[in-house]
Write a structure and sequence with these properties.
The protein has 415 residues and is of the alpha/beta class. 32% of the residues lie in helices and 19% in strands. It contains 13 helices and 14 strands. A 9-stranded mixed sheet has the order 5-4-6-8-1-9-14-13-10, sandwiched between helices. The longest helix has 18 residues.
């Protein structure tokens, strides 16, 4: 085991209805754009069939015309797209991922079938049913083979170790980043890649509706008016390596993942959106301590900020507990980009890295007024500003109770 290694972020990629790559993501945020969306149900009959009281909006992949789940081939291509983006940004070829000391983490739900396609046939299994109801074939185990993607990525990038798959609801990608950083920092790996995709299906919408997380109004973090998130399909990738490897490859890293901590909160479990603000406080404080900084050194906070009042209020309490009256600039772009569920933290980290590189903070835009306390310094619906610090804190909360906090730092990491 080697001494602790600084972990550099050297590449990223993203793809969704909002942006086809990282440059277009940043340009769209700077222009104050919103992701295109449409109602989930195409008719009142379809909505009634699924017993949904509302018809929420969502943002599909650009090529998705219907609510059919992505095929294996489509998911494979989407993942290769964002991985290749990350490699190009780092100026590397896929040979970087072919070594023994490489770890790849694949996050998300995995291959699935949309329940709306098979719900009417779930009790049918006669040969005649297979003939007249071909959609029933999607209930075959082959449609849920989680190892297929790992095997495909191993083949595409000559991986010696197959990707480790990870799913922990909303904090999947942030949990994977936590594991990836630990692997590199400890000397277990030289290179780590976190990649994942989101393909929202009808069963996801039913679950979120049961958690009171969907509405027909505009989604907006910290609005306090409505409990509504705009679910979005998309993919993202983040490429990291030790500082030694980056220098050896001729790179001059501009962003470092200086710390990451993960906890399970002890809050009530009556509602999956509830978290204990004291655990959020503790995770942020531990992340700052691990990075060797204090609250005054933080230039911006990227909270979970999903637009659900109960969790937004919990995060507000944690922010005020740590930063007090002076506060800290807070941004959450989920109203514009959409909520990528298991991949949202990756997108936030990509935007945070851009903020550190450019030394400026883009505002987030919302269609609903905020009711957050004035002491919560939301950088919203205004122009960009200079980033007041070289460190950014990112937090993520999973519906199963996980809380992950991390510190990203600019090139000059001296406090």
């Amino acid at each position: 085991m080697t001494t602790s290694q600084p972990v550099a972020v050297i590449g990223s990629g993203t793809y969704s209805g909002f942006a086809s790559d990282v440059p277009s993501l940043i340009a769209a945020l700077a222009a104050g754009r919103y992701t295109p969306s449409r109602p989930w149900f195409s008719s009142a009959r379809a909505q009634t069939a699924m017993k949904m009281a509302i018809n929420p909006r969502h943002s599909p992949f650009p090529a998705q015309k219907h609510h059919c789940a992505l095929t294996f081939r489509q998911v494979r291509q989407v993942l290769k797209n964002v991985i290749d983006q990350a490699l190009r940004e780092a100026g590397q070829t896929k040979a970087l991922l072919a070594g023994e000391r490489v770890r790849v983490y694949l996050v998300g739900n995995g291959l699935r079938t949309d329940i709306s396609e098979v719900v009417a046939y779930q009790d049918r299994n006669d040969p005649e049913d297979l003939l007249y109801y071909p959609a029933i074939k999607k209930l075959h185990a082959g449609s849920y083979a989680q190892d297929r993607l790992s095997e495909a990525l191993s083949e595409d990038y000559q991986l010696i170790r197959p990707p480790a798959t990870l799913y922990s609801a909303s904090a999947s990608s942030m949990s994977a980043v936590h594991l990836a950083r630990a692997a590199v920092c400890s000397g277990l790996a030289d290179v780590a890649l976190v990649v994942g995709w989101v393909d929202i299906l009808t069963q996801d919408m039913l679950f979120l509706a049961a958690q009171n997380m969907l509405g027909e109004s505009a989604a907006s973090p910290f609005n306090g008016h409505a409990s509504s998130v705009l679910m979005c399909n998309g993919a993202a990738a983040l490429l990291m390596c030790s500082e030694n490897i980056a220098r050896r490859a001729g790179l001059e890293p501009e962003c470092y993942l200086d710390s990451s901590v993960s906890y399970q909160h002890s809050g009530m479990r009556d509602n999956a959106a509830i978290s204990d603000f004291r655990t959020i406080v503790h995770s942020i404080e531990q992340a700052m301590a691990q990075a060797g900084i204090n609250a005054a050194d933080v230039g911006c906070l990227f909270p979970h900020g999903n637009g659900i009042p109960i969790s937004d209020n919990t995060e507000t309490m944690a922010i005020r507990k740590i930063w007090g009256e002076e506060g800290v600039p807070v941004v959450s772009y989920k109203a514009q980009i959409g909520y990528l569920s298991t991949c949202s933290a990756l997108v936030d980290l990509i935007v945070a890295c851009d903020a550190l590189k450019q030394r400026r903070l883009l505002p987030f835009h919302t269609q609903l007024p905020s009711t957050a306390p004035s002491r919560l310094r939301l950088h919203t619906n205004k122009g960009s500003c200079q980033l007041p610090g070289r460190h950014i804190v990112k937090t993520a909360m999973g519906m199963e109770g996980s809380i992950v906090s991390a510190v990203l730092s600019g090139q000059d990491r001296t406090v």
